[in-house]
Design brief:
The chain has 736 residues and is an alpha/beta fold. It has 4 domains: 5-215, 3-Layer(aba) Sandwich (Rossmann fold), CATH 3.40.50.300; 222-456, Rossmann fold; 466-525 and 675-736; 547-655, SH3 type barrels (Roll), CATH 2.30.30. It is built from 25 helices and 27 strands. Helix 5 packs across helix 6, helix 11 (317-330) runs antiparallel to helix 14 and helix 20 (530-541) packs antiparallel against helix 23 (651-667). The longest helix is centred in the last third of the chain and has 31 residues, at 493-523. It is globular, with a radius of gyration of 33 Å. It starts with a strand and ends in a 16-residue tail after the last helix.
Length: 736
Amino acid sequence: MGFRSRLALPYWRCGIARSERRRNALHLKAKMTPCVSTEVTTSFELDQFQKDAIAVIDRGLSVLVSAPTGSGKTKVAEHAVAVALRAGRRAFYTTPIKALSNQKFHDLIDEYGKEAVGLLTGDTAINGDAPIVVMTTEVLRNMIYARSSALDALDWVVLDEVHYLQDSSRGSVWEEVIIHLPKYVRLVCLSATVSNADELGEWITSVRGPTEVVVETKRPVELDNWYLVADRLDDGLALIPTLNDGKPDRRGHQYDIDPRDRARGGRRRYSTPGRVEVVELLAERSMLPAIFFVFSRNGCDEAVTSCTRAGLSFTTPEERTRIRQIAESHVEELTDEDLRVLDYGRWLDSLERGIASHHAGLVPPFKEAVEQCFVEGLVRIVFATETLALGINMPARTVVIDKLTKFTGDGHEFLTPAQYTQLTGRAGRRGIDNHGNAIVLWSPFVTFDEVANLAASRSFRLTSSFRPTYNMAANLVRRYDAGEAHRLLGNSFAQYQADADVARQEHRIEGQSQKLLRLREDAECVLGDVLTYKAALDAERGVRAVRGGGSHIERTLASLKPGDILWIEGSGGHDRVVVLSVSNRKGGSVRVKVLNARRNVIQLGSKDFDDEPTVVAHIDLPVPFTPMKPKFQKAVSLELDRIVKRLPSSDGDNQRRSESNRNAVERHPVHGCPDRDSHLRALRDAERVRREIEGLEKQIRSRTGSLVEHFDRILQMLEQWGHLDGWKLTERGERL
């Protein structure tokens, strides 16, 4: 499918037949004879970034390749594998998931033969002594900690999807491998397009030696981003571009829901398109084949069932015959009972229609059959979870994203630019499509601007998620002395980024400190003290002077009790309210739910107060506690009204205080200064800069040595639990 071009390949493949390459792989000490450029048939000419990266490998240096998904980064990795074999050495190819390891295993077998390629994953071990071994990254990490002899003849390691090091649950494994791998091993790190590739390359250089960075930002196939909405009024689907000239399409905002309408509920004009409708639209607009990302296994399977029940079918009789052949070849080792339990007949019926699902819940024969059928162009629509985006070679014309939020186990989170880039990287088949398509479905919980911002993000900043764990601590104690373990932690990318941030923050502090001095000079007045004049002005305007920021207000709010009566002053006058509840939010903020005399329930935070609130009285709240019921609210408001009437009136005091404050302002010597406004402006700016400096200093304190301190706290916990005795693992600790 598509065109084929001819080019001069690197020396290690020039004119060498596949059978000969296999023999060379089997005999590590055999020498592959370099030859001059000989033209051979291949799919595409190498891009410049591939040539540049291959040249780095030929110079014997590690290389980091940052390029879009589908641009051909693996060609660089394959070159490193061949260079290792030519030198009579070994090469390891690591991937983040088993599915990708399995696919790469079969690709390399096609190139070098079964005897030359091994596979090591968590549950599979095939030919582990082979010169080329494909494995998950965790397997290599465990080999390093075990000081496996398999590392002795190792020359090159490919770290595929190295941007995975930002994954919160597994990312530290990539850093452990990069730090601990023997220094004589060279790396080929393959990453999606990240904005700080140079920073990552500099870190690898600092811990491993010279590492060159090769960056490619251009996609091999241009991407068109689309927004799809179901419109009840027009009884159809509206498909509009997400971006026009790099900016959000103006029409997109008309589909946003007013937050007040969302709260009221009821029938809406716009809704999320049904999956069957979407597939029919893709077929009508010649946008198939497509990958439809649904972030749940059940959702994928249900979508296939819906399409089948709707009678959708995209294949010819000849294609159905070929699909059946592929399916039967993959399930030939399964028994009839296995096939019955797996509902093979229903699965095959959908597959023959050109419709399939792909997720970790499928048995490998089914999943591999789907992959082969899709690559051969026989399956037109695959409903898949996000694991399909991790490097598996299944490009499509179109990618559809069901929603921009996904459940992480702790809650629902919005897709990051990295995740969006990874998913849409499958859109557009090189040599076949002029453009790829990425379609996001409308959701009542996501605004059009949020969709457009993701679509406009061409790259993302790679941030380390490296944090010491109990298992990591045990391995470090087992393998290293205390000083070396601490040095290794200090070598992490997380600490490197923290140190770089500290340097940037210190530079920022230096600049802002100079600015603060200039502002304070500008705020000085020969007639008097501008600070006391501003305090008098604030008092006159009813603005309370800020005393140490909002932290003291947060502490006061946190100390409130249900039933406390507060006096609240604002620009619209004053009010007295009853505290119903106090809640601590993530990040340390406090929210207070109160009821006023008009029976309105209001949520208040520190930003709603100019100064800490004052408790003027206390009442006992009715039982049962049902604050949203009118009966409860009526009882509380009546009691509040009764208490307020007994409190002394402050109106006269307020008037006298206001006159006194006004006189204080007019009598102040700075009031007559012709430059008083510029003095006040400089004073306000100085206060803002001072708070910024305090914030930066706080960040520096939290970052400096944070990883080592966290590691030491873990060691203390392990010792308390009996896993550690000094710097030695106990019998219990050895089982970690």
